[in-house]
Amino acid sequence: MNPVITIVGRPNVGKSTLFNRLTRSRDALVADFSGLTRDRHYGKGRIGERAFICVDTGGFEPVAKTGIVAEMAKQTKQAVAESDIVIFLVDGRLGMAPQDRVIADFLRKTGRPIILAVNKTEGMQAGVVTADFHELGLGEPFPISSAHGDGVRGLIDDALDSLGIAEPEPEEEGDATNRPVKIAVVGRPNVGKSTLINKLIGEERVIAFDMPGTTRDAIEVPFERNGKPFILVDTAGLRRRGKVFEAIEKFSVVKTLQAIADCNVVILMLDAQQDISEQDAHIAGFIVEAGRALVVAVNKWDGIDSYVKERARLEIAQKLRFLDFANVHPISAKKGTGLKELFKDIDAAYAAAMAKLPTPRLTRILQEAVEHQQPKRVGMGRPKLRYAHQGGMNPPIVVIHGTSLSGVTDSYKRYLEGRFRDVFKLRGTPLRIQMNTAKNPYVDTDKGKKGKKR
User: Its function (predicted)?
Assistant: First the structure.
């Protein structure tokens, strides 16, 4: 097992910048804005040949009792409990703050190994900038610069050396069948995305708070269900473009859209107690454009009466009718009802998205479909659909070859899509139909001859 290194500190000391440098990524949002990170964020890091797991945490206030700050503190405490060693990050430019003493007292009581790192020391004398922090009693402070990388290699080498870990265990690569299925949970703010993830994994892994915009980053949560590995991705709630004012929220939207593009299956969460909005349709449209397998979860179903339930079903059927390939599940993320059926459809949607479609069978289905209903004529002729093969997965792409296929109408493509879906049982995933028209080999020759005559 790779060691776990947790980065802890008060707000805006550079924890996420250090996390991004250690993981060689841009996974954690970084801005000159205190309190940006709220949930704990995991990533794989490597220094030389030595690998480790790095955990980014929100600004830590151990004494907070209520509100979002208390929820952030709970996340940080859990991250410290899971860690092998803690990097306590302080700000060298601002000097020691009273909150640093409170955090140091808390960390000392946990019994975890602690390394004190003084950040933002670029261009400063190490002895001067670290002098004040000796009184914390956490050993020799390490002067570093998260932004520039100064001293970071030595910091991590010292952390790993103190754990007595010379070489990491080699990671098992495994085959494609053992790769975890990545599931992104998306929707408008405050529909219950974080509550659903916490219920599925059985712990308060991400902050679930009755306030829109609580989640700002895309947080990946690995877990197992019935022996199968999954990665759940909690995302920021997406609002209408005109409602997104803060730069921080704009970054959160980008991270959510990236999470959709990178995942295998999307759970689109709707709120049964609110009308289906234009924003719900926009989010659904982006999922379809990205080609991701999809399951729709209608949350807070337990809190409405039969009349409202029927109205919600009609609204979904009308306003989200382009999602007719996806199954819709009424659930209660808070109580955990409907989650077993939800996961059955997640498995089915993923299997459909990764399905292999043999060329002979595709061609036979295509020919049967054409015999049953031919495409409309275009001018004097009719498009000729000759054979089909699979052009990709996640989403499945069916490439059809023939002549004059540019004249095939969208309605006829939908007809073919329905035939392929029925036979291969492709429920829960978009399906792409791609037409490849054979070129007439004499067209260019004729043009060339005309040019020579001139």
Answer: GTPase that plays an essential role in the late steps of ribosome biogenesis.
